[in-house]
Amino acid sequence: MRLNRAFRVLLPVLLFSTLGFVAMGYHPGAEDDGIYLTSVEAQLNPALFSHDAAFFQLQMRTSVFDTWMAYFVRCTGMSVAWAELFWQAISIVLILWACWNIVSQLFEEAAARWAGVAMVAAMFTLPVSGTALYLLDQHLHPRGIATALILWCVERTLAGRRWQAFPLLVVGFLLHPLMGALGIAFCFTLTFTLFEPLHAHIRVLRARWVQEAAAPVAALIPLGWIFDPPTQTWLDALHQRHLYLLYQWEWYEWLGAIGPLVLFGLAAWFARRRGETKLSRFAVAIFLYGVLIQIFSMIILSPLAPVGLSTLEPMRYLHLVYIFLSLVGGAYLGKYLLKERVWRWVVFLLVANCGMFVAQRQLFAGTAHVELPGAQTGNPWLQSFDWIRHNTPEDAYFVLDPYYMAVPGEDYHSFRALAERGQLADGIKDTAVVTKQAELAPVWKQQIDAQAGWSHFQLTDFERLKAQFGVNWALVSDPAPAGLDCRWHNGTLAVCKIP
Questions:
Q1: Total structural domains in the chain?
Q2: Least C-beta-crowded within 10 Å: which of 46, 189, 301, 403?
Q3: What is the pTM of this model?
Q4: Per-residue pLDDT tens for 52-106?
C-alpha cells in the first residue's frame, strides 16, 4: 500500500520535474559553474590549472562539493559531464518531492498540493530580488543539492521528526555553508512556531534573535580576513557586485525583499482565521525568519559596519522565502482558482512554463536550450573551447578577452570549466571570487591591468604577457593579429600559440 501511494506521488513529481527542466534549460559550465565544475575537474586531474588554481580552489575551501563529486565520478566511471546532468536531475526531483510533502501537510486539497509543486517547477529560474540567485541554477550547483536537503529538513520538522532533519542539515551545510546555515536558521524558527504558544516563542525568538540571525556567520570559516582594513583593489572588485551593496538597491529590489514577508504575514492571519493552524504557523515562521535576518542584514551591510561583512551575503535568505512563496502561492491558486478544472490547469501550465522558457531563450540566445553531454554546438565560443580541450597540452596557459563572458553570443560560459585549461584572470567571474578571497586581489588587479586595451593587442602585447605571466596560448578574434602561430579557427575565433 505504501509503495503504491509513493508511486502515485512520484510519477507526477517526475512529470513536473521534466516540465521544469525543459522550461529552465541546462547549461553546464555557465556562470557559477566556472568555479564548481572547474574544481571537480582539478580534483580528478591535478595536472590541470597549474597556473591559476587559486581562482577557484580558495573559494572551495568551505565546501566538500568538489571532493564528493570527484569521488562519485571515480566510483561510478561516469564522465564528469554525465555525472553533472545526473545530479542536476536528482536535485530537481528531490526538491519537488520535498515540496509535495511540505504542501501536503499544509493543504488538504489535491489541486492545491499539485499546483504548489507545479508553480515551484515553473519558477526554477525566477530571479530572487537583488541577490543574483535563481530558485535553481541552469547547471549543477551545490546550492541546488543543499536546497533539496534543506527542504526535506523542513518537511521532517513539520512532521515532528526533527531528529531526522539534523543529519540532512549537516550534509547541506558541508555542501554549501551559507545555504546550510540559513536552513538551520529557518528550521530553528519553524520548530518554535510549531511547538510553542505563539506569545511564548515570540519572546524566545526576541531573546535569541542575534544567535539565529548570526547563523550565516558560520559560513565564514575560514574568512577572518573580513575584519581586516580593505584594500582599494578589493573595494574596486566589491563595487562591481551590486548584490553586496544593500543600501544602493533600487526601490523594486527592496519591494522584492519586503513584499514576500508582508504576504506571509497576511497569509498567517488569513490561515489562522480559517483554523488552519499548521499553515498559519508555517507562515509565521517564514515571516519571523525573514524579519530577523533582514534586520541582521541591514545592520551588517550598513555604511557603519566593516565593509568585509558584506561578503557574508545575508540577503540570500530570500532564496528560501521565494521557494516557499512559489509553493504556497501556487497552492492558493490551485485551491481557489484552478480547482479540478482541466482547461484552467492547461492555461496555468502553458503560461507559467512558456513564460520562463522564453525568458531563458533570451538569456542564452546563442546556445542550445538544453546542452547535453557530447552534443554538437553551433556556438563558436563553445566550439573553440572544445577544440582547445582536445588539442592543446594540459598545462597550456591561455589569455583571452578578460570580459569574454559578456560578449554577445558567449552566454556566460566559463573557459576554465569547458576548455579545461588555465587562463589569466577575467574581469567578470574572477571579480566575484576576489570579493570573497581578498588575498587574490593584488594578483587579479595585476593581471586585469596587463590585459587593458585587449581589442587592440598586437604580437608585442602577447609577447609581453608571455614574459610577464608565462601565458603561451591565446584565444583571439579571427583573423588573428599578425605573428601569432594559429592552429585552428572557425571564422569567429582563432586559437593561437604565442611565439
A1: 2
A2: 46
A3: 0.88
A4: 888 888 778 888 999 999 999 999 999 999 999 999 999 999 999 999 999 999 9
